[in-house]
Amino acid sequence: MKIMSFNVLCWGREEHSFESRVPLVVKRIREQMPDILGTQESHIEWMDNICAGLPEYTYVGAGRDDGKDKGEFSPVFYRKDLYESEENGTFWLSETPEVPSKSWESACTRICTWTILRNKETGARFAAVNTHLDHVSEEARVKGIQLVVDKINTFTDLPVFCTGDFNTYEDSEAYRIMTSGVMADVKYLAADSDNGNTFTGFDPEATKNDSPIDFIFVKKDCVKVNSYKILRDDIDGQMPSDHYAIISEVEI
């Protein structure tokens, strides 16, 4: 299986406008054709355009502002020819996770979307989780990721994949919480791995050797990780987003 995470940048402007980057993002995803894909900063126009450009996929998720289609999504896309969603949901990274809300001095409303997918051919089931932590409040990141981990821990008998823009580095408390239990960073499990930053601000030289802030985590006792790659190549001389997409090939 291929697991991909990609912050597509909600809007952008001028030469990096949303409209100009749609075909680049679609092409980047089509190059890889992942089994599951977690995107971040995906407003409803992104959702519609990704589905139109990649009809092989469908998704679960909701807009963070109203639980419907307003505001950014943190969706889980999946190959609809291969999988079906048995259960799914979205919760808010706040003190009231069941309703649109924010807490802990979070600059933005933040969410997490999850689904249990079943392989149509084999019947095998696994959970996929996608989130986007706050970029300002450390408390919001720490308490938000604890909510994500608490949800992951409910999938007791299933392999789990967690993708996201965590807006934090590997030496942070949020990263420690994420990797101190059943989950591990594919970067350190992969037989063929990569290293480097994933946020560029459209300037790949500015942060070339820094730690990533986008991650793929897996339940380490259920999954063999063959590779982890940061997709740095431009497309026709242009960068699809201010983040690099990341991808991991795994075996359950």
Give the topology, please.
Blueprint: E1 2-7, H1 18-32, E2 36-40, H2 44-53, E3 57-60, E4 76-79, E5 83-92, E6 111-119, E7 125-132, H3 138-152, E8 160-165, H4 173-179, E9 183-185, H5 186-189, E10 214-219, E11 224-231, E12 245-251
Parallel strand pairs: 1-2, 7-8
Antiparallel strand pairs: 1-12, 2-4, 3-4, 5-6, 6-7, 8-10, 9-10, 11-12
Helix pairs in contact: 1-2, 3-4
Could you characterize the architecture of this molecule?
The chain has a single domain, classed as Endonuclease/exonuclease/phosphatase (Deoxyribonuclease I, Chain A), CATH 3.60.10. It is globular. The longest helix has 15 residues. By secondary structure, the protein is an alpha+beta fold. The mean pLDDT is 97. The protein has five helices and twelve strands. Strand 1, helix 1 and strand 2 form a beta-alpha-beta unit. The strands form two sheets. It has a six-stranded mixed beta sheet.
* CATH architecture heading: 4-Layer Sandwich
CATH class: Alpha Beta
Q: Approximately how much helix is present in the residues?
A: 10-25%
Strand-pairing-aware structural class: alpha+beta
**Can you give the mean pLDDT?**
97
Q: Summed up, what is this model?
A:
This protein has helices at about 20-30, 45-55, 140-150, 175-180, 185-190; strands at about 1-5, 35-40, 55-60, 75-80, 85-90, 110-120, 125-130, 160-165, 185, 215-220, 225-230, 245-250.
